[in-house]
Amino acid sequence: MPGSKIRPSAVAAASEPSPVLDVLVLGSVEVRSAEAPHQLDRPLERALLTRLALARGRPVSDERLIADLWAEPELARPVHRLRVLVSRMRGTLGKTAPVVRRVAAGYALAAEPTDLVAAKAAANRLHVAKRAADPAAVRAAARDALERWRGPALADLRTIPYAANEAERLDAWRLDLLVERLEADLALGAAAEVTDELAQLVTENPLHERLCCLLALALYRTGKQAEALDGLAKLRRTLVDELGVDAAPETAAMEIALLRQDSALQAPAATSPVTIRSPSGPPDPSANPPARLFEPPKPAGDFIGREEDVAELSRRLARPGLVTLVGEPGSGKSRLAMEAARGMAVAERKVVVVELAPLRGDGAVVAAVAAAAGIEGARADLLPACAAALEGTLLVLDNAEHVVAQVADLCARLDRQAPEASVLVTSQRPLRLRAEHARRVGPLDRDAAVRLLERRCARDALPAAREDLDAICAAVDRLPLGIELAGGLTRTMSVAQVAARLGDRLRLLVGGTRDSGGRHTSLQAALDRSHDLLGARERAVLRRVSVFAGDFGLEAAEHVAVGPDIELGDLAPALAELVDRSLVTVEAAGGVRRFRLLETVRAYARAELAATGEMPAVRAGQSSWRRARIRALGGTGDLDSADQTVAVFQGWPDTLDALEHA
C-alpha cells in the first residue's frame, strides 16, 4: 500500500537534527531561520507552510492540502495550483527551501511549530504535577504554557478553511490551560486574587460550567455565598433557556455543597467535592473525587426519542445487576444514562456517578470509584471498602471505552462482593462479562430525529421544510450529538442553508451543546477520541474500508485492506474489533455477514485515508474488485437468477463508484 512507502520519510524527518526553520503559530504566524525572519506576504504561502508544520514532519497528501487550503469542490486544476504555490513558497524561503520535501503523493516539512511544541511540553509537566497533587507545580507549568501565546492562534490565517478549525481548537486549549492555572491558584489559597479574573472569563464564556464553578468557589471563599449561589442558578437557567440541557452533575454537586456550607470548600488546598471536568489532562482521582453524590437537576424539557429506552433501563436498574449501554460516538449513551440515574435518584435511590473519560493509569478506576463513594484514607485494596459503600447503590460509570479492562475487573468483583448493587456503564464496546446485559444505543428513528432537531433549532429560526430537516438528520446518521450541533447552527443560518452545507459535516458541526470540559463539542472531537483508542491495524482497516460507498463483504474488504502492513489473517480480527467498538455495523444478508460504516464515520475515515496518501491505491483496489465481480457473475450466464441479481445490486453504490474512478 502507498501508506507503507510514506513511513520511512516520516521517520527520517523525525530523526533529523533540530530544524533550520522555526514556525510560530500561537499568534500571527511567524517564520524564522538562523539567518533572519522570512516574510511570507501571501496568505496562502503562510497557510501552506503552517499546515505542513502542524503535521510535525508527517507527510500531507496533495488531496488533503487542496481541501484544507481552498475547500472549493469545483476548483480548476487544483494539483497545478498546489504545485505553483509550493514553488513560490520555496522561492520565498530561499536557502531554507530544502526543508520542504516532495514525498509520495504529498509534501512534508522538516520543521515544527516550535511554540506549540513547547506549550505541549509544559502541559505534559502540568499533568504530571496534577497526578502528584502539587498545585504550585501545576500553576508554574500552566504559566509556562500560556506564555507561549503572543495573541490568538493563527490570527492572520483564520479565513483559510483548515486554519479556522485549528485556531478554534487552540483557543479552547488555551482556555483549558488558563482554567488549570486558576484552579491551582485557588488550591494555593489565592481566592481573592483571582475572583475578578474569573468573573471576566465567565462573562466571556457564560456556559463554561467549570469556570462558573471555580468562580462560585472563589466567591464563597471570600465571604460571598449568596453571590456564588446566584451565579450557579443563573448558569442553570441559561443552559435550559438557550440550549435546552441540564447542568452537569458536577455543577449540581457544587451548588449543594455551597448550600450546605461544606467544610471542604473552605480548605485552601482542597478543590471542590467533585471533579469539574477537564479536557486538558487526567486528574488524580484520589485527590480530586469525580463525584461524591449525584443530585438530580431539574429536567430541561423533553428527552426526545428515548422514552421507551429510559423506561426499560429504569426497570432493569431497579434490580441488582450490570447493564452496559453500547453505541457509536454521539449516540447519546451518557444522556440516556443520566436520565435513568435521575429517575433512580428521584425515587430516593442512592446514586453515585463517576466520569471515566479523564482517567489514565493502572488502578485509576477503582481509586475514582472509592473517592466518589467517599472512602478516605490510604488502603492497600480499596475494593472491599467500595463494595461495602456501594451495596444497594446505583453506580454509573460513564465513558468506559478506554479503561474497559479495569471496569470489567471492577464490575466482576462488585458482582461477588456487592450483590445488591446495580451498575450502569456507558461505553463504545461491551465489557464481555457473563453477568452483563449489553444494550445497544443506536441512531434515533426518523420521526424522533426530526422532532429533536425542531426542538434544538433556535427559537427565532425561519420555518423549515420537512425534507430539509430529514436531510440534516440523515447527514448526521440521526445521532443525537450531530442533531444537537446542527440545531445550534440555526442561530446564524436557515435550516435550508444548514442542509445545503452538510457535505463537510465534520468541519461544520462544532460548538457543542455546552461549553464545558469533558464532553464532545463536535463530531470531529467525538470521532477523534474513538480513533485514538484504536491500534495501528484497526486504524488502517477502518480508513481503507471507508472507500466503500455502501455495505461490503469480507472478500471485498480483503481486496482493499490487505497490504504489506495488514496480512490476510489480520483482517477478520480487525473488523471484529471495529464492530466491537461500534465504528462498523454488521448484519446478516443471504447467509453471509455484511459490514457498513455510518456516514459520519465514513467521512472521518476517508479524510484519514486521503491524509495518508493511500486513496489512489485503495480506489484502484475497490474498482478492480467490483469490475472483477461483475465479470465473474456475468460469466456464469446466470444473471437472471435471483441470487446473482442480488449479488450485483448489493454492491451497486460501489459499482457506480468503480465506474466513476475507472
Strands of the widest sheet, in order across it, are 9-10-11-8-12
* Separation, N- and C-terminal Cα atoms: 19 Å
CATH architecture of the largest domain: Orthogonal Bundle
Beta content: 5-15%
Overall mean confidence score, pLDDT:
80
Query: What's the number of extended β-strand segments?
Result: 14
Show unreliable segments.
1-19, 269-293, 296-301, 512-520, 636-642
Percent of residues in helical segments? 40-55%
How many separate structural domains?
Answer: 5
Under CATH, the topology of the largest domain can be stated as Arc Repressor Mutant, subunit A
By CATH, the superfamily of the largest domain comes out as: Winged helix-like DNA-binding domain superfamily/Winged helix DNA-binding domain
* Gyration radius from CA atoms, angstroms: 26 Å
Biggest β-sheet: count, sense, barrel?
5 strands, parallel
Task: Name the overall outline.
Answer: globular
CATH class of the largest domain: Mainly Alpha
Question: What is the helix tally?
Answer: 29
Global structural class: alpha/beta
Domain AAA+ ATPase: 319-454
Pfam families: BTAD, HTH_77
Domain Bacterial transcriptional activator: 114-259
Region (Disordered): 269-300
What does this structure look like?
The chain has 662 residues and is of the alpha/beta class. It has five domains: 1-173, Arc Repressor Mutant, subunit A, CATH 1.10.10; 189-277, Tetratricopeptide repeat domain (Serine Threonine Protein Phosphatase 5, Tetratricopeptide repeat, Alpha Horseshoe); 280-442, P-loop containing nucleotide triphosphate hydrolases (Rossmann fold); 446-525; 536-660, Winged helix-like DNA-binding domain superfamily/Winged helix DNA-binding domain (Arc Repressor Mutant, subunit A, Orthogonal Bundle). Helices cover 54% and strands 9% of the residues. The protein has a five-stranded parallel β-sheet, with helices on both faces. It has a four-stranded mixed β-sheet with strand order 3-2-1-7. A three-stranded antiparallel β-sheet has the order 4-6-5. Strand 2 and strand 3 form a beta hairpin. Helix 2 (43-54) crosses helix 4 (78-93), helix 8 (191-204) runs antiparallel to helix 9 (209-221) and helix 12 (307-317) packs across helix 13 (333-346). The longest helix is centred in the N-terminal third of the chain and has 27 residues, at 161-187. It is globular. The two termini are 19 Å apart. Mean pLDDT is 80; it is low at 1-19, 269-293, 296-301, 512-520 and 636-642.
